[in-house]
Amino acid sequence: MGFNAQIAQVFEQMAAMLELTGADRFRVNAHSKAARTIKDTASDLEPLADDEKELTKLDGIGKGTAAKIAEFARTGKVEEHQELLGKVPAGLLDVLDVPGLGPKTVKLMWDELGIESVADLKKAIDAGTLAGLPRMGAKTIENIKQSLEFQESSGGRLHVGIARPIADSIVERLGEVEGVERVAFAGSLRRGKETIGDIDILVTTSDPDGAMDAFRSMSGVTKVLAAGETKSSVRLEIPDEIGGRFGGDAGAGVQVDLRVVPSESWGAALMYFTGSKEHNVRLRERAIKRGMTLNEYGLFEDDGGDGPPQKRGVTPAASESEEDIYRALGVGWIPPTVREDRGEIDAADAGGLPELVTLADIKAELHSHTTASDGAMEILESAREAKSRGFHTLAVTDHSKSSAVAGGLSVDRLREHIAAIRAADAELKGISILAGSEVDILGDGTLDYDDEVLAELDVVVASPHAALTQDSKKATKRLLRAIEHPLVHIIGHPTGRLIERRRGLEPAMDEIIAAAVEHDVALEINAHWMRLDLRDSHVRAAVEAGCKIAIDCDVHGPGDYDNLVFGVETGQRGWLTKDLCVNAWPKAKLHKWLKKGRG
Ligand SMILES: [Zn+2]
Ligand SMILES: [Zn+2]
């Protein structure tokens, strides 16, 4: 783990433990905010650790936090963290991770029943002692039990690439149910996060019972967890064609919640259930400053009355669409992908929220494999697929010789392949097929082909594939060397991480970004949902530095072109605009850029 990841974890644990020991909300929030800021920071904080001035420039890092960062850099520990660890049993933090259990309940279980671990919790459920706690009905206990089972079998979160097609298909099915007027998924899935906990669906309908029935009896439902008047929850198995296609990462399935919301509150509900929690807190604060109240039913003028305004028959100032509500709060509509309380509300307020790159903007795929290495399509087959999606350019970039398991090409085979690509380009009209390579960045930062060979290629994507556990300093040096190479266009999946499977390289991302800007190299967002590499927070840092970004599907088979949406949403989460995204450029501009360093 790099320095930032370590210190962020310390702050996260402190926030949780402070809450469990009954500290005030302000202190708890300050620690979780610090953890979030540190995680989002692209630069390595270790060299800055004794520079309080620099540290406190970061949003969410006050003097106290800065002192703790300095202490951690100096001693490898934070005294207050150690003290808290002495007070809070380690196993209690795992209990806090059980879905549906908040700190208040966990604290109560700890105080009253001495529950200090997940094992204790299970014993208390079996022994029936949990039922003795206030507000602990049979239904709540059953839910905790199921959360525990689910957590054990699934490992928790689901990749966005698995959740999205499931959500799309539910939305489609519910859209066909009689009476349903509007249906959409909300939650972190709508915000384009890389992993999600569960799927939230909202509908408006003239026949709530009909929608609920249809939902609970969908094919694939393995269990109905709740069946209320306005909310149902089910456990859904991951369809074979999704789980199977993507390597069977399906676990025990996914929880899906359906809520029927009043038609006139659609916008307010969609906003509320899309989140993020932090974004919504900011919006509610903004509403209060303007003498209003915001909840999932609408934005209301504060009339000083008691109780929720919708229950007192107060007409909302805005509620039917998200646009109306944002407008009434004095900001333009904010796309879901940036609703993370990372400055989006202030930016929108000042009219400075950038126009983000969209799926429709992407007109080129610059990273693709064919049967020459480990792809499933011939050159022309892939090019026809790209053309059918309206692309003007496809770069064929098969693996280089060191990636032997992926069928990497020897220099002789590469030259034959270049000839085949040129022939395909001449044959198929309406799209340019470029000859490229995904060339390995070796452990020391040298490239896997000689310069003479690289100069024969139209596109060079340089990627790390091996030695992905090397330390941060070596990783930084390695990537910098590749970026400085005059023939490199794009650094492919720069860290080599696999989400929830492999940490990958942890280079000093600010140095990588600065070098990429200096040498006019684009950093890739690899759109495969197992990678999403660069990650959103690094994209944001790159965009702020004016670094070019390539969004590529790393195509191996025809279905991989469908992953583009995940790359685009990751780009949006990093505030990426069209002008910095090379795949969104017109053909002439892109091809001119690709000529760099070549004659
Ligand atoms: Zn690769
Ligand atoms: Zn690749």
Most strands sheet: 7 strands, parallel
Main sheet: strand order: 10-11-12-13-14-15-16
Radius of gyration over all CA atoms, rounded: 26 Å
Write down the overall geometry.
globular
**Ligand inventory:** zinc ion
Number of strands: 16
Tell me the domain tally: 4
Total helical segments: 25
Percent of residues in β-strands:
5-15%
N→C terminal distance: 43 Å
Helix content: 40-55%
CATH superfamily of the largest domain: Metal-dependent hydrolases
CATH class of the largest domain: Alpha Beta
Mean pLDDT equals: 92
| Class derived from helix and strand content | alpha/beta
The third-level CATH topology of the largest domain is: TIM Barrel
Q: Extract low-pLDDT stretches.
A: 244-250
CATH architecture of the largest domain: Alpha-Beta Barrel
Account of the protein in words:
There is one protein chain. By secondary structure, the protein is of the alpha/beta class. It has four domains: 3-154, DNA polymerase, domain 1; 158-260, Beta Polymerase, domain 2, CATH 3.30.460; 267-349, DNA polymerase, thumb domain (Beta Polymerase, domain 3), CATH 3.30.210; 359-594, TIM Barrel. A seven-stranded parallel beta sheet has the order 10-11-12-13-14-15-16. A five-stranded mixed beta sheet has the order 2-4-7-6-5, sandwiched between helices. A two-stranded antiparallel sheet has the order 1-3. It is globular. It starts with a helix and ends in a 5-residue tail after the last helix. Bound molecules: zinc ion (2 copies). One zinc ion (ZN) binds at residues 438, 463, 465, 492-493.
